[in-house]
Amino acid sequence: MGYDHHFEQLKNIVRAYLPEDVPEGAIGEDSNFVNELNINSANLVDIVLDVEDAFGIRLENEDMDNMQTVRDALNIVAQKLQDKK
Amino acid sequence: MSITSSIIDKLPYTNPFLFVDRINMIGPDAIEGCYTFKKNEFFYDGHFKEQPVTPGVILTECCAQVGLVCLGIYLLNLEKVDTGSLEVALSSSEMQFLLPVFPMETVTVKSKKLFFRFNKLKCEVKMYNQQSQLICKGVLSGMIKDRKI
């Protein structure tokens, strides 16, 4: 499973937590979760927990701090999956 | 000072919006606390006209102060996080109300932790009256952290 596939999986997770006035099409690789997608800190935690379940990984506090954009999240997922091997 | 009174001291609420009198039990996964609604709580003047009943939002608040905030302070202290200047916010509430609560009633809140990750605490809460009847139940979640982080 590659980067594009991970992006689709992540998009499916994020979609459920978008505020009503943010369209699904707004989710790009450069999107900032808080500033651009208007996701609050409580829902960002929900996204992280869903990502953990979907990819079978565990994120730490520093990962959470570094996860500003969709691309950050994809990089963290890729790194964690790599570490698991 | 006992652990429970030190937690109540750290709550960021005061009269007329503090709805915790006592913590009966606390642990990493659950808490039980109680509160007695005074005869002259401020909301009884208007809810309802000449017929005081505790508003559902206040019952939710009581559940959140015991079930989320007191438990959250305990959990932060377990992680050795300083809780001198707390920031708390309720992020979601899904409650069902089964029985009314009148002035002078003592309620007991029992809360079970579903998860505490990245400063978000999600709990299953239940409130009982003195006859051990279920008053309300639901799932609450909120963010709790120290301002210095």
3D structure, described in words:
The complex is a heterodimer of chains A (85) and B (149). With 85 residues, chain A is mainly alpha-helical. Chain A has a single domain, classed as Non-ribosomal Peptide Synthetase Peptidyl Carrier Protein, Chain A (Orthogonal Bundle), CATH 1.10.1200. In chain A, 58% of the residues lie in helices and 0% in strands. Chain A has helices at residues 3-15, 41-55, 61-66, 70-84. In chain A, helix 1 (3-15) crosses helix 4 (70-84). Chain A is globular. In chain A, 21% of the residues are buried. Chain B is of the alpha+beta class and 149 residues long. Chain B has a single domain (3-146), classed as Hotdog Thioesterase (Thiol Ester Dehydrase, Chain A, Roll). In chain B, 21% of the residues lie in helices and 39% in strands. Chain B has two helices and six strands. In chain B, strands 1-2-4-5-6-3 form a six-stranded antiparallel β-sheet, with helices on one face. In chain B, a hairpin with a 5-residue loop joins strand 5 and strand 6 (134-146). Chains A and B meet through helix 2 of A and strand 3 and strand 6 of B.
Give the total of beta strands of chain B.
Answer: 6
Number of helices of chain B: 2
Q: How many helices of chain A?
A: 4
How would you sum up the global shape of chain A? globular
Order of helices and strands of chain B: HEEHEEEE
CATH class of chain B: Alpha Beta
Q: Which features characterize this protein?
A:
heterodimer; A: 85 residues; mainly alpha; Non-ribosomal Peptide Synthetase Peptidyl Carrier Protein, Chain A; B: alpha+beta; Thiol Ester Dehydrase, Chain A; 6-stranded antiparallel beta sheet; 2 helices
